[in-house]
Amino acid sequence: MEASRRTDERGFTLVDMLAVIVILVTAAAIALPLMLGAMERVRLGQAAREVERELQTAKARAVVKGHAMRVRFDCPAAGEYRTVELLGTTSVPLAADSSATRCNESDYPYPPPDTNPLTTPNLDGPLRRLDSTVSFSEAQTIEFRANGTAFYDAGGGDFDLIPVAGIDITLLRNGVTATITVNGLGKVALQR
Fold first, then answer.
1. Could you tell me if residue 6 is inside a domain?
2. Cβ count within 10 A of residue 99
3. Is 72 part of a structural domain of the chain?
4. What pLDDT is recorded for position 111?
5. Which pTM was predicted?
6. What is the domain extent for residue 162?
7. Cis peptide bond upstream of 76, omega within 30
8. Which residue from 8, 79, 122, 160 could staple onto 130, CB 3.0 to 4.6 Å apart?
9. CATH number of the domain to which 104 belongs
């Protein structure tokens, strides 16, 4: 009698392996854009949280120290921002309190060389930069006063109380936006 052959050999055929590879490549092709989009939103969200935190800190510093604080955007260059102490008074700011001078770290270094609380400015913060792929698409200088209220540059250097509905600071990254809203009461909210 002939020896019986084994017909149930185990293993994968070339066709089986190619089918699995095609399925994996298809899944990766679908998942990759989704993962890249998620990474875009994460980077934008982190930048928005940093700006929101800077605004919250400026408001707190204005209230605690009793000095008006301004947060200037795209200052001195696009994607940069800085919190500075107002020079002069809210009704009559000094001419030196312009964005051209106040964002210049060589003129107004951080930390300040003079920490005497009777001289100004000694509350200026460091110059901050957004991730190079994030930009401000809409932002105005915000001023927080000692009572916590918030004002914005209405144009020409005049600061008006922010309306009840608030104003938006919008960050942009590859077509995706994040918005921070500030209202006249000084409430700062990151929109989700």
1. no
2. 18
3. yes
4. 86
5. 0.80
6. 14-191
7. yes
8. 79
9. 3.55.40.10
Residue type, position 75, single letter: C
Mean of the per-residue pLDDT values of the chain: 87
| Cα 150 from Cα 95, distance rounded (Å) | 21
Q: Residue 176: inside a domain, yes or no?
A: yes
Report the DSSP beta bridge partners of residue 72.
82
The structural domain count of the chain equals: 1
**For residue 47, is it within any domain?**
yes
Task: Tell me what pLDDT residue 60 has.
Answer: 96
Average pLDDT over residues 56-61: 96
Are 179 and 191 contacting, i.e. CB atoms less than 8 angstroms apart? Answer: yes
